[in-house]
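User: Before I run my own analysis I want an independent prediction to cross-check against. Here's the chain; please return only the structure tokens and, at the end, one sentence I can use as a sanity check.
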Amino acid sequence: MSQRPIFQVDAFTNRRFAGNPAAVVLLESWPADRLLQAIGAENNLAETAFLVPQADGSHELRWFTPTVEVPLCGHATLASALVLAQEYGLEPPFRFRTRKSGVLTVTREGSLYTLDLPRRRVDAGGDADAVSRAIGAKVVETRLVPVDGDETVLAVLADAGAVLSLRPDIGAIAALDARSLIVTARGDDVDFVSRYFAPRHGIDEDPVTGSTHCALVPYWAEQLGGTQFTARQVSPRGGILHCRLAGDRVIVAGEGVIYLRGSIVLDGDD
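Assistant: Structure tokens:
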């Protein structure tokens, strides 16, 4: 029997019980994937981040939802950096080696953690009528975000109020010809707002999603001009993201707070 430290962080917020909760588990080496998935399911959060330290001072980082491993997760990356800084006293910048998203770097200035993430393509496509039926609101435009293992439809609505008042049919969203759905509109007191639904990842609605802004920021840069944006994800928990387009990278910054410190107990044959 062994124990490993676990933390839960509310990311993209400066207060508990808001933003997006992520678990962070520190490991010495990689166990079988089935155990990582079992821990992700047991935690039952949008993502659990697993960290393994490397000889060069970086960490290998993987993310699991309750049902699948995902290629990129922004809020759990922020949570991982916060844990290393606040709980282990390590100094940023932090370098995270990932399996499908390259090396991610996180820096810190005061309470703000800044993530350097890969820009995602935003192509023409999508079925606006099918999305309209699934979310119960008129879709102005759809785009496709063609990420291997995380293909996403981006749907644009007329205004922020329409995004906020959605009454989505989660079953219909799961039946769309993509793994997940971003719904967005121009904001009122911010540049743009969004919500994110990923039932095929085991997440009906994600509270605040860093990775979706890898597509949202290029899209809204095209629509609004400029390269710097303040965004709000208008889920029931909600969160604020400070974003910048930098060539083939998207810079996303936010705050976070520790909610839980503890240990997980594993049997010897796990």
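Sanity check: Residues 95 and 105 are 5 Å apart (CA to CA).
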